[in-house]
């Protein structure tokens, strides 16, 4: 008997690590999606588009986000607007992870630890 892997949605502000994490999860065979909730004024778009079993919210401090995305206008006002659009997802997230001081590998490992502990019991 095989257990279905959960569908994972990853949300967060620009440059928080979503693309890197989703790319890694997909490479490992997970059904991972990035619904771009930070760009939508539809509060529950992440639910409508992804219908996830697990919702992961990545974040980082504004200085780190700007450092990760040089040349983009990630000023405090813009990032506050993104976080406002992400409020519904934040409130419903299964895992909230601050990536400010984490490497992509550490982010992946923490996410996998969470998934193993919370969704794959008995698998």
The spatial strand order of the largest sheet comes to: 2-1-3-4
CATH superfamily: P-loop containing nucleotide triphosphate hydrolases
As residue ranges, the low-confidence spans are: none
What's the main sheet like?
Answer: 4 strands, parallel
What is the SS-derived class? alpha/beta
**CATH class type:** Alpha Beta
Distance between the termini: 9 Å
Q: Can you give the helix content as a percent range?
A: 40-55%
Q: Provide the residue-averaged pLDDT.
A: 92
CATH topology: Rossmann fold
Protein name: RapZ-like N-terminal domain-containing protein
Organism: Ardenticatena maritima
Key words describing this protein structure:
123 residues, single chain, alpha/beta, Rossmann fold, globular, four-stranded parallel β-sheet
Q: How would you describe this structure to a colleague?
A:
The chain is of the alpha/beta class and 123 residues long. The protein has one domain (7-117): 3-Layer(aba) Sandwich (Rossmann fold), CATH 3.40.50.300. Helices cover 44% and strands 15% of the residues. It is built from 6 helices and 4 strands, in the order E-H-E-H-E-H-H-H-E-H. A 4-stranded parallel beta sheet has the order 2-1-3-4. Strand 1 (7-11), helix 1 (18-27) and strand 2 form a beta-alpha-beta unit. Residues 47-118 form the RapZ-like N-terminal domain.
Short description:
The protein has a single domain (7-117), classed as 3-Layer(aba) Sandwich (Rossmann fold), CATH 3.40.50.300. It contains six helices and four strands, in the order E-H-E-H-E-H-H-H-E-H. The chain has helices at 18-27, 45-50, 62-68, 76-85, 87-92, 104-118; strands at residues 7-11, 31-33, 54-59, 95-98.
């Amino acid at each position: 008997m095989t257990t279905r892997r959960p569908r994972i949605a990853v949300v967060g502000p620009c440059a928080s690590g979503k693309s890197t994490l989703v790319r890694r999860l997909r490479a490992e065979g997970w059904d991972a999606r990035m619904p771009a909730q930070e760009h939508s004024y539809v509060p529950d778009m992440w639910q409508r588009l992804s219908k996830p079993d697990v919702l992961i919210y990545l974040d980082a401090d504004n200085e780190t986000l700007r450092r990760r995305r040089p040349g983009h206008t990630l000023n405090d006002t813009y990032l506050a607007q993104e976080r406002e659009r992400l409020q519904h997802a934040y409130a419903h997230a299964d895992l909230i992870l601050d990536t400010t001081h984490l490497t992509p590998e550490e982010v992946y490992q923490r996410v996998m630890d969470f998934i193993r502990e919370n969704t794959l019991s008995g698998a």
